[in-house]
Amino acid sequence: MTTTRRNLLKFVGGGAAGALLTPAPWRLITDAALWSENWPGIPRPARGEIRARFTHCTLCPAGCAVRARCVNSQPVSLTGVKPHPISYGALCPWGIAGHHLPYHPARVRQGPVKEALAAVARAISQRGAGERVAMLDLRPGRTVSWTYRRAMAAIDHGLYLAPRQPAYSVDLAAAQNVVSFGAPLFDGWGTPGNVFAARANFRLVQIEPVESRTAALADVWLPIRPGTEAAIAAALAGETTIAEAARITGAEEEAIGAVKEALGSGPSVVLAADPASPLMSLNAKFKALGHTLIARREAPVPDAWKKAAPINEMAATPDASIRVLLIDESLPGGYVPWQEIQPKLAPNAVVVVFSSSSEGYARHTQYVLPAPVYPEAVEDVGPAIDTVAAVFRIAAPLIAPTVPVVNPGELVARIAGLPQTDALHDRAGAIHKAGRGTLLSYVDGKSTPMKDVKADDFWKTLNQGGCWMDSTEKKAAPGKLEFRASAQQPHDDLPLAVVAAEARRGGLESPLMSKLERESNLRLSANRVALSPADARANGIENGGRCLLETACGRLSVVATIDAGVPAGVVEVAGGPRMADLCGASPRARVVRA
Amino acid sequence: MIGGKIAFASGMLVALAGGWLAFPRILYQTRLQPVNFSHKVHADKASAKCEDCHSFRDDGTYAGIPTLDKCSGCHAAAMGTTAEEKNFIDQYVTPNREPQWLSYARQPENVYFSHISHVKLGHVKCEQCHGNEGGTGGLRPYQWDPISGYSRDIWGRPVNRIALRTEGGMKMDDCVDCHRRQGLEYSCLGCHK
User: Which of B1, B13, B23 to mutate to test binding with chain A, by most A CBs within 10 Å of its CB?
Assistant: First the structure.
């Protein structure tokens, strides 16, 4: 046989055909796919010992207990703590993805710390008579909140500001009937595990214009015209007739009558989207005080702290009176719209914000200092709105900060000249000294009466995964409930009522959650609004079209989603600081084609 | 014409030989374990059971390959006269140096596998996935596929993955196949949490 070009090609052809009959090419295809998973730059959790660590989630005031699966010291997944008497082993989707936040690409990574301190010191020394140094704490009730209050007491004309906190807790487990005026009971209102644990025992009537997630899961959804909640409340209280309420709200008379009957038939509680809403006064009428609506209780604090500055609201502060404003936005909390803050600032005010996100007050202030983010920060979490007993639980850090951060509590204490002490440890000492309640350890699931716990063991258990709970034997009625009537200005040129699609207020969100929820439009992203087909048609707006959302506070370019579930006269917007700044102070708007 | 057929057949034969005989030898790199541990000696002479060393922690997680602390509990000093044991004590126990065992069954990081639910609830025998390792007199060499980065045990011993039911493998297909045969549930989130 001679070696010709043709024979050589046939040899190669035979080789190729033969190779297909061997495992080699097929195996190489699989291996190449696996090889591509190991390319440089693809994040891979470290190999190492797998163990469980415990902490508490600080992403909302619920403070759910968290079990972190860690490889070496790196948390790789978060779950709830099953035997927990408050969170019942549940975590919300944000809590499950919380360990992504330290690596968020939009995180504030650096800030002018020295310049901010120098500007604050200069402003304090040069301020005029009556000008105040104020601390705005978006998540009051923490131990660091006491540090802020002590710091403001130590500073001449210091002022501690916080969003109003309800003076009550809601005992859902004791309620047979829950009437909710737009409170997002199943979507961020309280502790998810606790709410769903109590769910089987109460009947929920959800009164709101839009069929929210809570309305969809309620026993009865009572759709009403936006802004007519007070008319229903008046009818339930017997101040007006049911027929009159039906005329104003658009709800059916029978439905309102059924709600009134249910409220009087057993232990009931009335909830409102704004915990300080006058709608909450219905609870007195239906004898909920001391039964389902009880006094909010806090863990004991050291006696020396009781001289701290009182809690004030931004609205009660005189205009142009704040020379220095420090804002702790390190945890998502009750965002105060910037339009409420701005008039209170002196013309040459220095504003410093501690934040991990550039979305909130960072858009308005000169000095943005990077704050630790969950689960880097050492914090404690006070009782949530549905926590009956006083609790003390520490969010022990799971990882060291991934960027250089400033501890807001330490810095404010330094500005005020307070001695640098471990406030959490001091408070734990005060709780131990009080000697009441029990300590639950997550490691072994055991509850131990405090009288049997040594101080060192108490502190150790709190840091390794544990929760102090006060006794719940004595239920007290809350003190005098103070309500805030909403001061809405009528705007004839703003025909649409603004409804926030979720209660979430600020803070970073795991990119995984953004991908799953926002980009797939399961939840509205910050640049989207939802309109009824009728309103969209009237304004010439198409689904997915660009339009302008205009309120009394300004305008924002947004993308419209036309949703037949949104009633006419309503524009649904996302939660978050940007929308709160635009719509928070004046919940009327119009949407026009861009 | 005949010459062409011979050339084609020759090429085919060369490829078949290369694919079936040479390829598996080229594909895998062989590495030795740090210590030639004998499961058989431990089972026979010390009456050790699998779970004595490969235990579950109190919280249900699987401890996997025992750490040096566990070995040192018995082998702080030599218990026998073998060169392997002397080497182990000199090289690892005395200097307190953890042996870098090569795990035959190491899965990718995106796989969640619960030993306790398979062993305690599903009553799956260790041998079903890991083979009869417990009866061997020494550790077999670790064969590593440098392209995929995984051991040969994950793919399964035969390179063609034919008749795997007797040889075993630990790829996703094998997990799904076993669950399907047993009529058990399987879904993406079961393992890729």
Answer: B23
